[in-house]
Amino acid sequence: MKDNFSPLDLLALRADFPILSETVRGKPLVFLDSAASAQKPRAVIEAMRDAMEHQYANIHRGLHWMSERTTEAYENARDLTAILIGAPSRDEIVFTRNSTEAINLVAHSYGRGMMHRGQAVLISEMEHHANIVPWQMLRDAHGIELLVCPITDDGDLDYVAYERLLASHRVGLVAITHMSNVLGTYTNGARLAAIAHAHGAKILLDGSQAVVHRAVDVAALDADFYVFTGHKLYGPTGIGVLWARAELLDAMPPFMGGGDMIGSVSFERSTWARIPHKFEAGTPAILEAIGLAAAIRYVKAIGFDEIGAHEQALVDHALARLSDIEGLTIIGRAQDRGGVVSFTMRGAHAHDVATLLDRAGIAVRAGHHCAEPLMRRLGIDSTARASFALYTTKEEIDFLADTLLRVREFFA
Amino acid sequence: MKDNFSPLDLLALRADFPILSETVRGKPLVFLDSAASAQKPRAVIEAMRDAMEHQYANIHRGLHWMSERTTEAYENARDLTAILIGAPSRDEIVFTRNSTEAINLVAHSYGRGMMHRGQAVLISEMEHHANIVPWQMLRDAHGIELLVCPITDDGDLDYVAYERLLASHRVGLVAITHMSNVLGTYTNGARLAAIAHAHGAKILLDGSQAVVHRAVDVAALDADFYVFTGHKLYGPTGIGVLWARAELLDAMPPFMGGGDMIGSVSFERSTWARIPHKFEAGTPAILEAIGLAAAIRYVKAIGFDEIGAHEQALVDHALARLSDIEGLTIIGRAQDRGGVVSFTMRGAHAHDVATLLDRAGIAVRAGHHCAEPLMRRLGIDSTARASFALYTTKEEIDFLADTLLRVREFFA
Amino acid sequence: MFEDVADLYQQVILDRGRHPRHAHRLDRFDATGKGDNPMCGDRVQVWVKRDDAGAISDVGFEARGCAICIASADLMAEAVIGHDAPGLRALSDDFAQMVRSGQSASNAALEQLKPLGGVSDFPSRVKCATLPWQALMGALDAPDETEAAHG
Amino acid sequence: MFEDVADLYQQVILDRGRHPRHAHRLDRFDATGKGDNPMCGDRVQVWVKRDDAGAISDVGFEARGCAICIASADLMAEAVIGHDAPGLRALSDDFAQMVRSGQSASNAALEQLKPLGGVSDFPSRVKCATLPWQALMGALDAPDETEAAHG
Ligand SMILES: Cc1ncc(COP(=O)(O)O)c(C=O)c1O
Ligand SMILES: Cc1ncc(COP(=O)(O)O)c(C=O)c1O
Question: Between C67-79 and A350-359, two packed helices, what is the crossing angle to 10 degrees?
C-alpha cells in the first residue's frame, strides 16, 4: 500500500470545519459524501455571518454606504470566480443558483435562442440528470436532436465514438461532464473541445465535480461554456456559476426577466443590460456570493496542487483497500480520476449498505446518483459511493474498509 | 402628531439585529432601505451558522443521518412557509431564488405551457420590473397580449378600468402587485381575484412587499399564484417562494430540468416527480430555506398584528413629518398602504438627496426602484424612498425629516 | 457492531429480503400496479388476483430495491390475502402510520407486518417499506385487466 | 452637517448642476450619442459639431440626472473643445481614472474637470460623472449624421 499522502496539515485543516467534530448516533462523523455537497470551513461560515451582522444591504441600486460595500463584496466574488477558473473576463461570470440552473440557462437561452431545428446536442452516457434533462426538454420543445456518446467498459469516454458522432451529425453543442460524479472519471476537456471545434460545435463542460479537485482553466481547455456549483466547492448552497465566452453571452437572449437585468423598461419594449447582468434577474444570492468568495479564497490558499495530490493518494488508497474486499465490485476504472469511488456489494443492496455504514457514523451516498441512464448502461440499479474532500483522511478510508467487511458479514 | 406607536419592545427587538448597532462614516446607521432588502435578526444568522457547523449535508437522496436531518429542516421550512401564507397544502410551496424567479417560472411554465396565442396577461402601471419583463418576454415569444391596468392619481389601482379590461379582453392571467414598492399602496387582492375569476382569468399576486407588513392568507384572498422573496422578510438572499394551487402546479410542465425533479430518466424520455419537487431542479437553497424558516418563526413570534400596527404608526408619522417640509412632494397617497414612503424634493435630484442623507448615516434608496413605467406614468424620473421595518423607530423618522430640511438648505 | 440496527434488520427481514416467497409475476391476475421512488431509483410492480367476492386471493411482485423493500413486499403479499379494497386501504394506512411513527393501530392484519416497525427510526428508509404498498394501491385504482393481458 | 461632502459638491458643481450652460441640443451637429444608467434610470444625450480638421467645435447635451451628472456634462462640453478623436479618447480615459481612483494623469485638459475628482470617494456616484462621457464616446463611434437629421 502506497503512503504518499501529501504534506497537508490535515489536523489543522479539519479544525477549520466545525462539523467534522460532530458525532452522529454517538459515533464520530466520518463524512464520505462530499461529492453530494461538501462541508463548510469556518471562513465561509464567518464571511456570511459577518456580512449579515456588519455589512449588508441590497446591491447595485443603492447609493448608501451599506449598499456600496455590499455591491463591492458581491462583485469581488465575481472577480475571484473568474480568476479561479481562468476566465478571460469577469463579465463572463454569471451567478446562478447551482449547476443545474446554469445548464438550464444555456439550454433555454443558447439552445432555444441560437440553435436550429435539426441541429444536435451531444451528451454522454455518464451524465448527471442535470446535464440530460434540460437537453431533453430542449429536444422536445425545439426540435433539436439528442445524441449520446458511449463510454468504455472502464468508464472512460469513448473518444473514437465521440469523433464519429461529431463527424456524422450536425452537432451544434456538446455538453459533457468534466468529471463523473459516479465513476470519478475526468474527461479530457481540452481534447473534447478541440474535436468539437474542429466539427464546428460549441462545447459545455459540466465542472460540478471537476473544479473541486483540481485547478481548472477554461481558457486552456478552450471551452465555450463551463458550469459549477458552489456547495460542492465548500461554499454555501444557493449559488452556482456559468462561465461562457463573452461573445456568446452577448449574443444570447436573456433567460429570466426582471430587475437588474434591464437597460430600460417601457410597456412596449425593454432593452437588456450588458453582460453579466443581463443574465442575473432580480436580487441575486448576495450572501451566497460572499460565502463562495470565502470558499474560493480558502481553497486557493491551500492550493490545488496540494489538494489534488492529497485526494489522489486517498483514491489510490481507497481503490487498494476496497479491491481487497471479496464480493465488493468497484464501478469505474478510468485512468484519470477524482475523489469519488463507487461500488456494489454482492448480496447487499446499496441502501442497506449505506444504512449500516451510517450506524457506524459513516456517511456515504447510495442509489442512482442522479445518473439513471449510466446505471442502465452499467447493468446495475444502484451503487454506494464514497467521496473525498480535502479534509478526508486515510484513517477514515481504513475505517470504511473495515466496516464494509462487517457489513458483508451482516448480510452474508 | 399622533403617537399611537405599538407596544413593541423596540429596544429589545433592535438588539436582535446586530447590524443596527453599526456606524457608517462614524454615524449611527439609520437603515431606511428595508424595502430593498431587510436586515437579518440573530435568529436567522444563527440558524444558518448552526446548520453549517453542526448539521449539514445534501438532502433528499441521502440515507445517512446528516442528510436525513437536513432534509427534515429543509422540508420544515416548506411547512412553515405554507402556514405563513395560509396555503392549503405544503406541496403547493415551491422554493425559488427570489420573487423574480417565481414570476419567471409562472411565465414560462404556465404562460408558455398552458396559455394560448391571443390570450392576454393583465398587469398594472405600478408593477416592479420583475412583474413586467417576464410577461413581455412571454408576449414576444408566445403571442400573448400584454394589457396594462391604469392607476389613479392617488396611486390606487383603478378598479373600474380593471373590470373593464377583463370584460373586454380575453385575459388568461392577471399579474398584479399586492403592495407597490414605490407608492406603498396595498391592492385589494381579494377583490382583484374575485373580479378576475368572474371573467375566467387566473390571478398572480406579487407579494414581495405585502408579506412583510401584514399577515397574508392566500386561501382567503382566493388567489391562484402568490410570490414573495425571502430577503425582504428578514431572511437570507437566495430564496424565494412560489405558491400556486396544487391543480395548477400539477398541470404545469416543469421549468428547469435536472436532479430531484424527475420521476425516472432515460435518454428517450423522462417523467417528472410530484409537486413541489417537479419545480425544484438540482440542489436547492438548503441553508437559505433554513434561514427563511428562522425568519418566519421570528416574525410570527412577534406577530403581524403588532408589526402592522407599529409600521402603520411609522407611516402616519412619516407622512405627517415629511408633508411639513416645503418643496418636498410625497409620491403616492393611497388609503391603504404599507411601510414605504417615496418623495421628491424640488431643486434636488433624488441621487443627490440620497448621497447627503448617507453622509448623515441614513440609508434610503433613490432612483426608479425598478419601476420605470410607473415613473413615466407619474411624470418623474426618480424618487427617494424611505422604507420601514419592524425595527424602525419614530426617532429615525424624525432624524430623516430633520436631515431633509438641511438637505433642502444645502441645495437651495 | 451493528447491534442498534437489529430493530430494522430483524431476522425475518433479512430472510425475506434474501429469499422472498412471492417475487414473481402471476400467470393469471386481475390487476397490476407500479411504485417508483425517484430519489433512489427503486421500483416495485405488483400483480393481484381476486376471488369471486372481490377479496385478494393471490399476490406476486417484482422489485428492484433493498432488503427492506423486498421483505416488505413479501410480507405484504401474505398479509393482504382475503382483504377487499376498503380493508386494504385501511391496512395500507395503518401500515404507513406504523413505519412512519412506530405507533401501530389495532389492526389484526398488521400483526404479520410488525417486523417492519423498526423502520420508523430510519426516516430515509420509510419509503423503501411503503413502496410495495404504493404499487398495490396503484393496482386497486387501475381498471381491471383481462387475464389475457399477462405475459 | 454636510462638511464632508464638500469635496463632492464643490461650489462649481452645485452651480453647474443648477444652471448648466450647454444643456441644449445643437441646431447643427455632426454626431450624437446617448448614455444610459439602467440601475437608476439616468440618461444623457450629447450632440457634437466638428471643425474642418475634425476637432470638436461645439457640444450640447440633454440630461436626466443628478447634479453630478449635469455638472459633469456641462464641464465636459467645455473641456473637449479643440480635441480630435484620439485626444478625446485619452481624455475620457484619464477622466474615468480620476473619478474612480482620485488619481489624475498629467493631462492639461483634465484641469477644468478637477472639481469632479471628489466623486472617487462615492463609488456609487462614479457612473453619474462618467455617463456624459459614455454618451460622447457613443457620438464618436456613431456614423456621422447629416445636419438635416436634427430637430
Ligand atoms: C413589488 C416587488 N416585486 C418584485 C420584487 C423583486 O424581488 P427579488 O429581487 O427578490 O426577486 C421586488 C423587490 O425588489 C418588489 O418590491
Ligand atoms: C456532475 C454533476 N453535474 C451536476 C450536478 C448538479 O449540481 P447541483 O445540484 O448543485 O445543480 C452534480 C451534483 O449533484 C454533479 O455531480
Answer: 110
